[in-house]
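Sequence, please.
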């Protein structure tokens, strides 16, 4: 397409100001993540269970690739695999290049090579800017964030969801969906002739309902076998401490979305970290999220079910309680050891196993002084009865930011985490965990070759840096391997260590 060429000075975007939005709701976030003793409630928190056995992965092969391979920061790295072609993968990111939008990379060879980050590795139609100062963007927003990716069941369409933010009053926010029909190489062009699909829009920064910081946060995306697209998010309302979960659905391949449905209400309303998985046989959708129990009674895990493709949702059922959920949001909270940085919290990650008809949920919790991975599950015929949360391969160091996927034919569980077990609980690595027996035994593989300190790298922030590795990574399962994406350090090319890269690994269990 033809781009309008404007002077660079007119195209200079404000540096991303997500902190302005997030700080308005930090009281809600910290309240949700800071647990107390659950007075008067059934205690379903993990005790010190008998540990499952685990071993080194052994002969499994491992390939690691630098995906973004540029000179500035990317973080938050969702991953999707084409269900009809396991060689086709897409990953997203928060792109801290000149565009300050949502970045995207695609692979057509199983992750060995990826499309370039510069100059056009971003989703068009969101921001006013591109990664070329002389080329205008096709969107209306100053910056974008919270990438989420998926494929249609037939593999013909890739989907990318992202928020667009205004940096000036009225601080509007839009949740947008882009589509690709060539495996993620090119995306909806944007502008008036090829606009992105509007999922929902919002008025931000306290302009609605008298709030001190109303904003949506951390959407995710899931596409069911019947093609229904689910996009849930938390709607923070600032000082009210109220953040219900909403879900919007599309039944026409992302051409349009339903009006958002509010899932949570009443006493279950300080919510975040919503994700959805579906049972391919029944089409039932399962939504998990975490919640700050009213009255300072802890932080809990909840599940809700939709049996009508997202039109209505059941009253959420509580299936677990944290002892001390990870909260990495300095200066407000940082409850693991070491130098401080902003990173993931203890959100629940669901996955559905068609072979056993069980819904699995993995999460991290600080038990015995260290952040550990826990796994629980329930047969979908009775979501009131969950297994006792078991520690996944008990570790000598903190493990945070767990991601999970299940291979649908064999039921193999694939997990990954940021792991300090390989460095005496001082530095970070990525670890893969695989189980072929429902979580009884685990094969464990160190993925990264060298450890690093996330407090020593960051994203641009004024004249300095802000250590921030993002709130989530990505993992997918194929019949023969697991694919992983995460944020790691790159070569420092300027005066500041702001080069965080997207990395991909293929692990053969």
């Amino acid at each position: 397409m033809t781009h309008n060429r404007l002077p660079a000075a007119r195209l200079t975007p404000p540096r991303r100001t997500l902190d302005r939005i997030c700080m308005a709701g930090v009281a809600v976030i910290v309240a949700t993540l800071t647990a107390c003793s659950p007075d008067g409630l059934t205690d379903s928190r993990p005790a010190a269970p008998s540990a499952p056995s685990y071993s080194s992965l052994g002969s499994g092969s491992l390939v690691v690739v630098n995906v973004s391979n540029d000179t500035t920061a990317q973080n938050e790295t969702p991953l999707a695999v084409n269900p009809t072609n396991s060689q086709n993968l897409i990953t997203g990111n928060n792109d801290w290049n000149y565009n300050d939008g949502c970045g995207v990379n695609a692979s057509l060879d199983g992750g060995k090579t990826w499309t370039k980050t510069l100059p056009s590795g971003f989703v068009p139609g969101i921001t006013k800017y591109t990664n070329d100062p002389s080329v205008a963007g096709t969107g209306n927003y100053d910056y974008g964030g919270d990438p989420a990716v998926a494929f249609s069941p037939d593999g013909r369409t890739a989907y990318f969801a992202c928020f667009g933010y205004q940096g000036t009053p009225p601080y509007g926010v839009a949740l947008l969906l882009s589509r690709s029909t060539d495996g993620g190489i090119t995306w909806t062009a944007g502008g008036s002739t090829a606009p992105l699909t509007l999922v929902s829009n919002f008025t931000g920064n306290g302009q609605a309902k008298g709030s001190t910081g109303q904003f949506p946060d951390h959407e995710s995306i899931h596409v069911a076998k019947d093609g229904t697209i689910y996009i849930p998010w938390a709607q923070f309302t600032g000082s009210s401490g109220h953040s219900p979960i909403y879900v919007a659905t599309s039944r026409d391949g992302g051409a349009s979305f339903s009006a958002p449905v509010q899932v949570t209400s009443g006493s279950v309303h300080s919510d975040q970290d919503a994700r959805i998985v579906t049972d391919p046989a029944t089409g039932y959708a399962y939504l998990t999220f975490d919640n700050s129990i009213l009255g300072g009674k802890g932080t809990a895990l909840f599940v809700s079910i939709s049996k009508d493709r997202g039109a209505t949702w059941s009253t959420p059922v509580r299936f677990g309680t944290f002892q001390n959920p990870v909260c990495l949001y300095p200066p407000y909270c940082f409850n693991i050891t070491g130098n401080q940085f902003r990173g993931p919290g203890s959100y629940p990650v669901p996955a559905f196993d068609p072979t056993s008809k069980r819904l699995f949920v993995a999460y991290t919790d600080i038990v015995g002084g260290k952040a550990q991975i826990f796994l629980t599950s329930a047969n979908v015929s009775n979501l009131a009865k969950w297994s006792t949360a078991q520690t996944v391969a008990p570790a000598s160091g903190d493990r945070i930011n767990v991601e999970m996927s299940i291979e649908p034919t064999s039921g193999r569980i694939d997990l990954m985490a940021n792991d300090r077990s390989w460095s005496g609980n001082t530095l970070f690595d990525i670890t893969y965990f695989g189980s072929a027996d429902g979580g009884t035994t685990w094969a464990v593989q160190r993925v990264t070759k060298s450890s690093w300190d996330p407090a020593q790298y960051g994203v641009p922030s004024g004249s300095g840096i802000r250590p921030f590795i993002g709130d989530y990574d990505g993992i997918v399962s194929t019949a023969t391997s697991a694919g992983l994406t995460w944020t790691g350090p790159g070569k420092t090319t300027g005066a500041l260590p702001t080069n965080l890269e997207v990395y991909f690994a293929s692990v053969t269990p």
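The two ends are 44 Å apart (CA to CA).
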